[in-house]
Design a protein that fits this description.
CATH class of the largest domain: Mainly Alpha
Order of helices and strands: HHHHHHHEEHE
Shape: elongated
Strand order of the largest sheet: 1-2-3
Strand content: 5-15%
Number of helices: 8
Distance between the termini: 32 Å
Radius of gyration: 24 Å
Structural class: mainly alpha
Number of strands: 3
CATH architecture of the largest domain: Up-down Bundle
Length: 298
C-alpha cells in the first residue's frame, strides 16, 4: 500500500528558486544598509521610513528562503502530499514584520510632522534613494520573470514587493526634494505615505496567502484553462464537474469527464490517465483527480 505520493526532484526548479532568492536577499540587505546610513546622516523621516521598509524586506527575504526551502522538501510519512503549504505560511508570518515596520514608519513621520519637519540635504540622501530605485527596478524585472516561469506565488509576491518599493522610494525622494523647494513638512508627509503604502502591501500579501492556506478556488480564467486543456483530448466528450482548491500555492483539481460508455475499462483508465497528466503538466496545478463517466451522466 502506497502512503506517500510520487515525487520527482526538479533540479531546474530548485535552481530558479535559488537564483530568485539570492537576488532578493542580497539586494534587500544592500539597500537596508545604504538607506539606514542615509537616514542616520540626513535625519529624514521619509528616508527613515524607507529604511525601515528595507529592513522589513530583509526579514521577509530570510523567512521566504526558509519557507521555500521547506516547501521544496520531498513528501514523507508526516506530509504525504508534500510540504508546499510552508511557502504561503512563511509569507503570512512575514506580514506581521511588515505591519510592525509600517507602524514604526507612520509613528516616526507623525512625530516629525508635529515638530515642523526639516529641510533635507539633497546630496548623499538623494544618491541613496536613486540607487534604491534603480536596484529595486532591476530586482523586480529579474525576479518577476522567474516567478512567472516557475509559477511560484512566493517569488511573485517578492517581485511585486520590489515594484512597490520603487514607488515608496520615489515618494521618499520627492519628499526630501519638496522639503527643500516647497515646505519642510513634505519630508514627514512622504514618510507617512511610505508607511501607509507598507500597510497596503501587508493587506494584499495577507489576503493572497490566506487564500492559499484556507483552500480558496481558482478564478474563472484558470478554470477555463483547465477545462480547455482536457477538452482537446481525443475521447473526451464533455466536462461536467470541476472543483479546484489551493493546497499551498498550487491547485488541487477534481474533474469529472464524459466519454463513450461502450469503451473498455482499459480505454477508460487510459483516458483518465491522459487527462490527469495533461492537468498536472500545468505549472499552476499540484495534483489532479479525474473521474470518467459515460455520456449523459451528470
Amino acid at each position: 500500500m502506497r502512503l506517500i505520493r510520487d515525487y520527482e526532484p526538479h533540479s531546474e526548479l530548485s535552481r530558479q528558486f535559488r537564483h530568485a532568492l539570492v537576488i532578493t536577499l542580497a539586494g534587500n540587505v544592500l539597500l537596508a544598509i545604504v538607506k539606514s546610513i542615509a537616514a542616520r546622516m540626513s535625519g529624514s523621516s521619509a528616508i527613515y521610513a524607507d529604511a525601515i521598509n528595507s529592513i522589513s524586506d530583509v526579514l521577509y527575504s530570510i523567512l521566504l528562503v526558509i519557507g521555500l526551502w521547506l516547501s521544496q522538501q520531498p513528501p514523507d510519512i508526516s506530509h504525504p502530499q508534500g510540504h508546499s503549504r510552508f511557502e504561503p505560511f512563511a509569507a503570512l508570518i512575514v506580514t506581521i514584520s511588515m505591519a510592525i515596520a509600517g507602524a514604526e514608519a507612520v509613528r516616526a513621520s507623525i512625530a516629525r510632522f508635529m515638530e515642523g519637519g526639516a529641510s533635507i540635504s539633497l546630496g548623499w540622501p538623494s544618491l541613496a534613494l536613486i540607487l534604491g530605485i534603480v536596484i529595486k527596478a532591476l530586482m523586480f524585472t529579474s525576479v518577476s520573470k522567474i516567478g512567472k516561469k516557475i509559477a511560484s506565488p512566493g517569488i511573485s509576491a517578492a517581485a511585486r514587493d520590489n515594484l512597490s518599493d520603487v514607488f515608496t522610494t520615489l515618494a521618499a525622494f520627492l519628499g526630501i526634494l519638496g522639503s527643500n523647494l516647497i515646505s519642510p513638512l513634505l519630508d514627514p508627509l512622504a514618510g507617512l505615505f511610505v508607511g501607509l503604502w507598507i500597510f497596503r502591501s501587508v493587506w494584499m500579501t495577507a489576503k493572497e496567502n490566506m487564500g492559499y492556506l484556507t483552500g480558496a478556488g481558482a478564478d474563472e480564467a484558470m478554470r477555463k484553462k483547465l477545462v480547455d486543456t482536457v477538452q482537446q483530448i481525443e475521447g473526451v466528450e464533455n466536462i461536467h464537474h470541476i472543483i479546484t482548491d489551493y493546497a499551498g500555492p498550487k491547485l488541487v483539481v477534481e474533474m469529472h469527464i464524459n466519454a463513450d460508455g461502450e469503451i473498455s475499462l482499459n480505454q477508460s483508465h487510459a483516458l483518465c490517465d491522459q487527462a490527469t497528466a495533461a492537468l498536472e503538466k500545468l505549472p499552476e496545478v499540484d495534483r489532479a483527480y479525474v473521474h470518467v463517466e459515460p455520456i449523459g451522466h451528470i
